[in-house]
Amino acid sequence: MATDHTPKLVGTAWGLLVLNTLGSTGAETIVPLPRSLIQMVTMGALAVAFVLALALNLRLRVRPSAYLLLLTLLLVPSVLSSADLESGFGALFRCARLALFVGTLWLLSRWWDGGTTFVRHHIRMYFFVLCSVAAGALVSPGAAMPGLYGGRLVGALWPLTPPQIGQYAAVIIGLSVLLLLSRRTDLRSAALVIVPSLVLLLLTHTRTATLGLLVGLTLAIGSLTLTSAAARRFFSWAVLTAAVAAVVFASALQAWFLRGQSEESFSNLTGRAKVWDALLAAPRTTGEKVFGMGLGDKSFDGLPIDNSWLAVYHEQGLIGVALVSAVFVALGGVALLRPPSPARACAIFLISYCALASYTEAGLGDASPYLLHLAVAASLLAAPAPVTPLSAPEPARRRVPRWARTSEVA
Fold this sequence. Notes:
The protein has a two-stranded antiparallel ribbon. The longest helix has 30 residues, at about 310-335. It has helices at about 10-20, 35-55, 65-80, 90-110, 115-140, 140-145, 160-180, 185-205, 205-220, 230-250, 250-260, 265, 270-280, 285-290, 310-335, 340-355, 370-380; strands at about 300, 305. The protein is mainly α. The protein is globular. The chain has 17 helices and two strands. Mean pLDDT is about 85; it is low at about 390.
């Protein structure tokens, strides 16, 4: 692994990007926060992150990245579909936000070296967010688990929905487990992150995050089994424990998974399927099919789309879908070609988690935590920067007097 020469302020810039992607809508907080104030904070965080990244990288040195190139190309259909203002001025504002977001990632890519530096930044920042969720639950349990969300855990200090909290918890649990198995962290530090995050994940009753965690860890640990005895032992015990739990706690697991929903509600994914059918059946011009309707709030007829692929198709058209597909092909292809390593395992976990979550969550076509997860994966798959060896100084040559250069003896 490359030696870590990353400035500490890079972690600050990454934390500001995380703050920007937390969103401005969600549950009601203990202290009411105006949406305009939240938007000002999140957008201000993005602006400061860009300025800070630029100050750290004044020479504009960037690492070649297919991932960032594809995100930059995604701006083309976004701007073209938003330019006619059919979706309002908010569409152009979202395009500017996406451009600033991608530009910040380009500036930070200078420190993408295939190491786990950004994994640690990622874990720290989202763990801090989860600490705020836990603090809100301790201060006001009623506000943190309101009846409006069926008693599921929400953000009571900052407006966060159960799927958001579940996503953050699942991602840092998976990354912490992989760092522990690869001996990149100690048991105490890993447990400090994994145990409380697992409790919060269970309290959110988020099925997508739970399945994404299980599937992602299975693939990631499977990639380590050929080279890591610890991974093989963990994988064997995990399979055995899961089999026993599935038999002993079958009814409890089923009740938790269904969340009190009927079979009909579960089959149409809590109403998502109806929105998807309506979106696909809506009439569109050729231009709208190719370039989309412009960046919006990931909704259709006032209802959330909750599917990244359909959201991208709706807002950025078939070109957007092709570019997002190319992102997964590029990252997945590079991950498969890399030799087994902890960095590769973490990248596989993040890629597989985002791919699975894209079915019931939107965000792959706009500035979102999912793009940050994939950015961490891209940093893990980046080739280490070549280290130029220091050349040894040439030995000083002794000056020989002229009289001593002759071979004659007086």
